[in-house]
Amino acid sequence: MELSLLDYKFILGFENFLRGHKPSHYQKQIGNNAVMKHIQRLRRMVTLAYDIEWIGQDPFRKFKQKLIPTNRGHLTGKELELLEELTLHSLRLRTVKDLFVFSCYTGISYIDMMLLSEGSLVMGLDKRMWIANKRQKTRNPVKIPLLSKALNIIKIYREDKRCQIYGTLFPKISNQKVNAYLKEIAIAAGIQKKSHLSHG
């Protein structure tokens, strides 16, 4: 489709398509805020095209974004314990559970966790292991102490071939899949809250 043909009617049609679309890895249609995120990505590209005068007008000028406030909540200590003790037979679900628990004990974001390598681990002055790296989002250096439970999760994947391929501490898995699988894990653990791994 040519950029010059992209108009307000197309945007409304795209929104309706997204609202009726059911991705193969989801159990239901995507929600309102996910629809708005997809439209935001398109809007950035179209705005750029308008700014550099590839198109004569901005078709998004009439479009109103409709975000719904959400409260994901935080896991209680008891809920985290339930998650840790949960036995999962699926490798993909076990891996995602480990990633989520690791993030709970370190506060590290998804993108930073996916880039961790053996070189990210240092011995601190306290004779304990720490993560020392830079946040991808801000490039600011961070140091994070590794509690025993976080260290144990790292040890699980030391010999994992999926990690050896990329030279990372953890297997590569998309943020979208992680958050989709977390929904399955939460249901299995009997947790009602919407758990997710922050991207940045």
Automatic annotation (TrEMBL):
Q: Which molecular-function annotations from GO does this UniProt entry contain?
A: DNA binding
Q: What is the official name of this protein in its record?
A: Phage integrase SAM-like domain-containing protein
Q: Does the keyword DNA-binding apply?
A: yes
Q: What domain of life does the native source organism fall in?
A: Bacteria
Biological process (GO), any one: DNA integration
Keyword vocabulary terms for this entry:
DNA recombination, DNA-binding
Matches recorded under Pfam families: Phage_int_SAM_5
Domain Phage integrase SAM-like, first and last residues per copy? 2-64
